[in-house]
Design a protein that fits this description.
The chain has 122 residues and is mainly alpha-helical. 31% of the residues lie in helices and 7% in strands. This is Biotin/lipoyl-binding protein.
Length: 122
C-alpha cells in the first residue's frame, strides 16, 4: 500500500482541488509548445573592496620646497603637455641667488676662495 506524503486532511483536499482547477487554466493560457521570453532588469549588486585610481590624474611635484603662489587651472580642466599649472615660490631663493651673484662679482673672489685647491667649473 503506497504511503502519501501528506495525511488526509481538509487542507490536503483543498490543495488537490486547487491544483485540479488551476492546472488546466495554465495550459490554455498560451498556445501548446509556445514560450514567451521578455527581457527584464535583474538586480545583481555585490559588495567589493577596492582601490580606484584614475588614469587621467597624476601627482604634481616640484623640485624645490615652497608655497604655491599662483594656480592657473581648476579641477576638471584639460591640461596639455608642458602647460604651466602652478607657480611655487620660496622666499629664501632670491636671497641665496643674490649672495651667489655677490660672490661672483667680488674682485678676486675666485682667487681667494680657490687658492690651494683645484678649480671646478660648472
Amino acid at each position: 500500500m503506497p504511503r502519501s506524503l501528506l495525511p488526509h486532511t481538509p487542507a490536503r483536499e483543498a490543495l488537490l482541488v486547487l491544483l485540479v482547477v488551476l492546472l488546466p487554466l495554465s495550459a490554455t493560457a498560451a498556445e501548446p509548445g509556445s514560450l514567451t521570453v521578455q527581457p527584464r532588469p535583474v538586480e545583481d549588486l555585490k559588495a567589493v573592496f577596492a582601490t580606484v585610481e584614475s588614469v587621467r590624474e597624476t601627482l604634481a611635484r616640484t623640485r624645490i620646497g615652497g608655497t604655491v603662489a599662483d594656480l592657473t587651472v581648476t579641477e576638471g580642466d584639460k591640461v596639455p603637455l608642458g602647460q604651466v599649472i602652478a607657480t611655487v615660490r620660496d622666499p629664501k631663493l632670491p636671497l641665496q641667488l643674490a649672495a651667489l651673484d655677490a660672490r661672483i662679482q667680488a674682485p678676486g673672489a675666485g682667487a681667494r676662495c680657490c687658492s690651494g685647491r683645484s678649480v671646478r667649473h660648472f
